[in-house]
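Tutorial sheet, problem 5. The two components below are modelled jointly, 709 residues in total.
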Amino acid sequence: MSVIVCSFAGWIQIRLATNPDPPDEPRGISGYTFALPGEPDLDRLLRTSDPVAPRSHGPLIGVAVRAVTVDGVAVPGHPLVGARVELRSAPIFESVNDVVMAAGVEALEPFDLELVHGDFRLRRRDYLDPAQPDLTVYTAPPALLAARRTADVTLSNTLLQEAIGSTDAVGYRAARLAQLRADLAHTKDPYARAALGRRISELEITDPDDRRTMSMTFVETRHYTLNGPVDLVDPAGWLAGLATYQTFACDLATGVWDADALSAYTVGTLALPTL
Amino acid sequence: MQVAGLGAHHAPPPIAPIRTREDLIDALGRAAELEHAIMCQYLYAAFSLDHTAPDLGPEDSETVRGFIMGCLLIARQEMEHLGLVSNLLVAIGAPPNFDRPNLPLPPRFYQVEAPLALLPFGDDFLALAAQLELPCDQPTGHPIGPYYASIAEVYERLREGFVTLGNPDAPTAATLFLGPDAPQLDNAAFGAAPGQLWYDITLLRVTDLASALATIDLIRVQGEGATPMVLAHPVLLGVKLDTTSHYARVLAMQTAWDALSSSARAAALRPVPANPQSYPHGDIDPAATVCLFRDPRAVALATLGVRAYELMLLMLTRQYGASDATADDLVMYQSIAFFPLMTAVVRPVSELLVQLPAGDGVHVAAFTFELDGPIRAYRDRTSFHVQLVERFQHLADGFAALAAEPDVPPRLGFVATNVAYLTERMRAYVAAHP
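Model answer (structure tokens):
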């Protein structure tokens, strides 16, 4: 038995309203995130690629495998390095404003991970209960749902350093503000101007203790056990001997919430047992 | 009819200063009702606006969204003020007061010159808000006439009362604050640091004269903008004060409203009536114009909405002051009343009602903020919890039935799902905590 561990990282997009807006607020009013003029409604979906209405000067959305180890030994040229990591089935942070779970420790559900690289594809889901694949956060027994709570919520600069190359969240937002102000000076389109105006007014809130800035250091850690059917297309045999009868462990840390760009940074590992 | 010789021509007496604990409790009780009513006014105005109206251009749309954001921000701070007044009441040995009369109320109902009414956003609402939030330009401790000119004077009198009764030389000082252990809600209850602003609010615990005065001055600075008052309190040094008071915000909204074209103003305003009602009330200003809903869906949803709101108030009442609530109970009340009921039930219902016709051929419906009876303090946890489950079940049944009707907004199904989930949470909690 051997274990291949894929380490991945990248930016994701989450177009969601923030408290105290209702979870299904479509445009954003009383929180600090908004659908801007000309943008479609907020939808709460976590996107690992193909961002909807990506914001100017925001991070590029995409998560990819950065490194692979086999039994703890780095394999720099492993063919899975560079594979796209996708979360499928429309995942949502499901607190429902504390109806279902407390904000910050809420479930990310469903969790359906896919690695894609050329013709290669591996997809598997962590079902709340594999015997009841249709369970949702509303219908799952409380004990099952409790297992979906975040494993840890911390304030940390480590992920911030990795994502933006600095621990200066205030400076990061200030640089964005300067870029948007410069853009506004030569923007004529009324929709673009209104959108820039809203973003600028939010970025002008520079208090480091305000959640717009402080949330850049929030890190939520989650553990998953991929337990559904394995969907593997592996023409080159990169994962030959994959133990599909075993569960796959996936750890995920998400943070660096860039409220202006509706984006966050995520890192994680996927452990693949092979015979 | 005037009776000669009985003083019919005398001017009303000035409002008496506060000189006893009961004076203080009465005045704080009225302040709680005022804050509560004013909160309703701002919420009502916010939901009368539609920043997504197709006839609004992008710039005007953002301006209107700014009005909604401003009204909701002020409403949150009015909720905070209600919470702070509740802490003041509890600190001096009184129960909280989450009750209030139905709206509209005539001028001087609370000895405040202004009326209280549910008005759609616009000139009338902004004028009323400005009158209520008007800064007090009199010297501190000035005598107050027969009526308060604004809310600032209500707190001016309360402040003077606390100073009189709580100063170290007063015979009442030693017993005025009956116990710092009395349940209050402060920032710590929400995981926030002392003095930290979260969601634009901060909750202070009241244990002595200094914290009582800091609490009153915080209310004043947020309302009228009396910044120097707050800077005098060490407990508030950590508060990152928003330099924009309610009064300043209201004036800014008036300026921005005036700058909108008449067509933009018309597009931004939903045809929301003043003072909506789902059934007639005998306790309101008889001279005021009201709108009685006639559409059965509007009546049903308005009734469910105010029942959810009432349930929230009952749980808040249990959170403050002495009761037989356990520590787990208090956590449960807080975890249900605040985000779930406020933001995932009451607010969506407010937004859904304006999508239904009022049934008078002119207006759409709106959240009525009606209270069907006094908000009582339930003292026995066992019977309260039985009633909580019953009330939640009635709400869940009602929302489910209404969501199944034709021609109701699909979002009602989302609310129904959430209420059903909360009902089961409540049932499970009560079963596990006999």
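Marking note: The mean pLDDT of chain B is 91. Full credit if you identified this.
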